[in-house]
Amino acid sequence: MAIIFSPSALFTTTTTTTTTTTITPPPLNKHHLPIQSTTKLQLPNLTTTAITLAAATIIATTTTIPPSLAADSYAIYYGTAASAANYGGYGGNSDKKASAEYIYDIPEGWKERLVSKVEKGTNGTDSEFYNPKKKTEKEYLTFLGGLRQLAPKEAVLNNLALSDVNLQDLIASADSVTSEETKDDKGQVYYVYEIDGPSAHSLISVTCAKNKLYAHFVMAPAAEWKRDQETLKHIHESFKTVG
Fold it and tell me: Start and end of every PsbP C-terminal domain (predicted)?
């Protein structure tokens, strides 16, 4: 399996503040001036003083945010959606990137759960990754061959639930289920579902390509959803078919 790590862009922010101070000499008091009319009063060079102070302020207030405080890092997973009969590769072809049919991002630190040949053949699960700190926080992809286009949104979701008991339970107890249709820059149609329940939350993206239906799932318990919502939305939006 080939996983190419592609850290999200790290931004370094530099904040610069410039303060210009103009020094105004004190008023000349006639009583304090020397009696001799030939004496010249020496005043500081105001322009030089202002520039020096400004430069010192810039150096003192420059702040750099270390990379460790920037966005999360992700790896790109290349999925082949191979049938159960071809489980394990294509006759020794180890370049999954070249034969990939879909991709999605994996958060740094998440682990892969190896999918069995039986599981692949029964419910079409092709890949799965999970958070080792909470294994029920996960993303996975299923596929089904022989489909040229998507059925109506409600029918698609109901059919997905037939082979996924956890999804059935989540839908049955959900506070809300929303769906929408979107298109990518090539005009390919994606169905996007969001299921919000009292105990868990799920984001699902479904599309058809190459006579196959691909369904990408992101699931998390309610507590993890509240904590990791930004990361979970990112991996949900990263899914797309390729090739």
Answer: 100-240
